[in-house]
Specification:
The protein has 284 residues and is α+β, with helices and mostly antiparallel strands. It has 3 domains: 71 residues, 2-Layer Sandwich (TATA-Binding Protein); 117 residues, Endonuclease III, domain 1; 52 residues, Endonuclease Iii, domain 2, CATH 1.10.1670.10. The chain is built from 15 helices and 7 strands. It has a 5-stranded antiparallel beta sheet with strand order 1-5-4-3-2. The longest helix has 15 residues. It is globular, with a radius of gyration of 19 Å. The protein binds a DNA duplex (13 and 12 nucleotides) through helix 5, helix 6, helix 9, helix 11 and helix 12.
DNA sequence: AACCAGGTTATAA
DNA sequence: TTATAACCTGGT
C-alpha cells in the first residue's frame, strides 16, 4: 500500500533515520530509506513537506505510522521552546526536523544493550545478523527482509550461538535479558505507566542495562521525554557549552540536565547529540 | 601495533 | 559515593 502524509514539517528524514536512535533504517542510492518495523517493510522518501511511505502491509491504517514517526506532536512548538535556550540555537537550527521515533520496547532494549561501548556501524551489523538468523522472513517485492526475533527465541540461545552475530561479550546480557522478559520476571511493556525514575530502576535490573541504556529505552520506546541519555558526545558537548570544557562526572551532568531542561531534556539530547557529532570542530 | 569507540559490571578505596 | 580495569569487534 501507499500512504502520503502532507504538511509534515518540521521533519528531516535523513536525521531521523540516521541520527542514532534507530538502527534498522538503510538509505538507498535514490534517497529512499528502507526499514523493518514490527512485521512491515517500509520504503520512505521525503519531498519537502510530504512523506511517501510504501509498505507491504495491505491495510490502510495510518495511525500506527503517524505514531511511529511522531506526526501527532507539534514540533514547531518544541523547537520554539528550545530556541529560548540561547546556547542551543545553533544545534536546534542545524537539526531542525529531528523527531523522536516511537519504537518497540523489546527491540529497543536489545538494540541499546548492543549499543553499549560500540560503534553505530557494528551495532547495525549485529542487529541485522540477529534478525537474519533468528527473525522471521518477510517477502516484499522479490526481496526477503527479517523481523526482530521475539524474547522467547533469544532466550533459548547459547552464548556461543549468539556470538556468531558479532555481539561479543554482550551475548550473555542479551540472553539473560531475554530470559527475564520471556519468563515474565519483568513486564517491559507494563512499565510505561510508571514514573521515569521508577521505570529506570526497573530497567536497570536487566543485565547490560545501565543508566544510559535505560534512558535510551525510555526515550525511544516509551515517550519519556524527561529521560536524558548521556553518552561520550553529550558529555563532551555539555562540558564544552556549560562548564568551560572542564571534566564533569556523569552524575553531575545528569543532575544539571534534569534541572535545566526538565521534561524537554530528551529533545535537547537529540539535537545536541546530532549537532555535536556533525559539527564538533565548530563547537570547540 | 597500540588505541579507540554511542557503557556496564565488578571490585576496591 | 567515586575511581579503575576488563570486555568483543572492527577500523586506523
Amino acid at each position: 500500500m501507499n500512504i502520503i502524509f502532507t504538511d509534515i514539517l518540521p521533519f528531516n528524514l535523513e536525521i531521523i533515520a540516521d541520527g542514532g536512535q534507530a538502527f534498522r533504517w538503510n538509505r538507498q542510492e535514490d534517497g529512499r530509506y528502507i526499514g523493518v518495523i514490527e512485521n512491515n517493510v517500509l520504503k520512505v522518501i521525503q519531498n519537502d513537506d510530504e512523506l511517501r511511505i510504501d509498505s507491504n502491509a495491505d491495510n490502510k491504517q495510518t495511525e500506527p505510522l503517524k505514531k511511529y514517526f511522531d506526526l501527532y506532536r507539534d514540533y514547531n512548538q518544541i523547537e520554539r521552546e528550545l530556541l529560548r535556550y540561547e546556547e542551543l540555537i545553533p544545534a536546534v537550527r542545524y537539526c531542525s526536523g529531528y523527531r523522536i521515533l516511537f519504537q518497540d520496547t523489546w527491540e529497543t532494549t536489545i538494540s541499546f544493550i548492543i549499543s553499549a561501548n560500540n560503534h553505530i556501524r557494528n551495532i547495525k551489523k549485529t542487529i541485522e545478523n540477529i534478525c537474519r538468523i533468528y527473525g522471521n522472513p518477510i517477502e516484499h517485492k522479490g526481496e526477503t527482509y527479517f523481523s526482530f526475533p521475539s524474547p522467547n527465541v533469544l532466550a533459548g540461545l547459547s552464548e556461543d550461538e549468539l556470538r556468531l552475530t558479532k555481539c561479543g561479550y554482550r551475548a550473555k546480557y542479551i540472553i539473560e535479558t531475554a530470559k527475564m522478559v520471556a519468563s515474565g520476571k519483568i513486564d517491559i511493556y507494563g512499565l510505561k505507566k510508571l514514573s521515569t525514575a521508577d521505570i529506570r530502576k526497573e530497567l536497570m535490573m536487566l543485565p547490560g542495562v545501565g543508566r544510559k541504556v535505560a534512558d535510551c529505552i525510555m526515550l525511544y520506546s516509551m515517550r519519556k521525554f524527561d529521560a536524558f541519555p548521556i553518552d561520550v558526545w553529550i558529555k563532551r558537548v555539555l562540558e564544552q557549552i556549560y562548564f568551560n570544557g572542564r571534566k564533569m562526572s556523569l552524575a553531575k551532568l545528569q543532575n544539571f540536565a534534569e534541572k535545566r531542561f526538565g521534561d524537554r531534556a530528551g529533545f535537547v539530547q537529540q539535537y545536541l547529540f546530532y549537532y555535536s557529532r556533525s559539527c564538533w570542530s565548530d563547537i570547540k
